[in-house]
Amino acid sequence: RENNRQLCVPGAGTEPSLSTSMPRSRRDQKVSLTKTTSKGKEQKAGTIAKVREALDSFTSLYVFSFQHMRSSKFKDVRIDWRDSRFFMGKNKVMQKALGLLPEDEFRDNLRFLSKRLSGQVGLLATNRSREEVLTYFENFKVQDFAKPGVIADADVTLEPSKDPLHFFPTSMFQLFRKLGLNLETKNGKLVLLEAFPVCRKGKAITPEQAKLMTHLDLPLVDFRIRLVCCWRDGEFEELE
């Protein structure tokens, strides 16, 4: 029986139809940045507008710095100052709102305040008196647990004589062992067998040390807000 299949051989009769198009690499795809860029510009413009609106609505503007910021704790500050306005974000955008030169400052002498916007800082716009603002932030301090990487400002050591593990359940034995403690269970209680250096002054806190201090309820850092300078009715004042 003859084989009815026909073979197409290059150079002999019909040329085979070959597709030369290849799948386009994702690397070659062009991504439009127009929307992203426009959104970024809109956010900057919005921040600038809000800062300038605050200058029209409030009599005073303060630059404040902060250490060991905790969002949950700062929410309490916002509640205490619900009649005022806080701004925290890109310093350059806030500087743009205030102005850096005499010819572009939004109000007289705001350029001096603008130049203090460096590092971990923010703005507070308020109608409250100078005395009330100073008193509140001078007394504001919230203790909290240190995060990994924070430089310890004190030595912390667990001493067996103080029985630091007395109130912990024996179910935490393995956890404390993994965190470096030499301990045993005795009469249904955890007993520390030797002194343990939790952290050392001037040294960065490790993830294990941070976890241990949290379990032991040993807050090592203070979340503080310090006033840097103030602008009121066109007058600038250093506060540090």
Automatic annotation (TrEMBL):
Record flagged with keyword Nucleotide-binding: no
Location within or outside the cell: Cytoplasm; Nucleus, Nucleolus
CDD domains (UniProt xref): Ribosomal_P0_like
UniProt keyword Nucleus, yes or no: yes
GO MF, one example: RNA binding
An annotated GO BP: ribosomal large subunit assembly
InterPro entries to which the protein is assigned, alphabetical: Mrt4 (IPR033867), Ribosomal_uL10 (IPR001790), Ribosomal_uL10-like_insert (IPR040637), Ribosomal_uL10-like_insert_sf (IPR043164), Ribosomal_uL10-like_sf (IPR043141), Ribosome_Assembly_uL10 (IPR051742)
Residue ranges occupied by any Large ribosomal subunit protein uL10-like insertion domain in the UniProt entry: 146-216
GO cellular component terms listed in the entry, alphabetical order: cytoplasm; nucleolus; preribosome, large subunit precursor
Region (Disordered) location: 1-43
Keywords, ordered alphabetically: Cytoplasm, Nucleus, Ribosome biogenesis
Matching Gene3D superfamilies: 3.30.70.1730, 3.90.105.20
Domain of life: Eukaryota
Assembly notes: Associates with the pre-60S ribosomal particle.
Family to which this protein belongs: Belongs to the universal ribosomal protein uL10 family.
Task performed by this protein: Component of the ribosome assembly machinery. Nuclear paralog of the ribosomal protein P0, it binds pre-60S subunits at an early stage of assembly in the nucleolus, and is replaced by P0 in cytoplasmic pre-60S subunits and mature 80S ribosomes.
Name used for this protein in its record: Ribosome assembly factor mrt4
Organism of origin: Nannochloropsis gaditana (strain CCMP526)
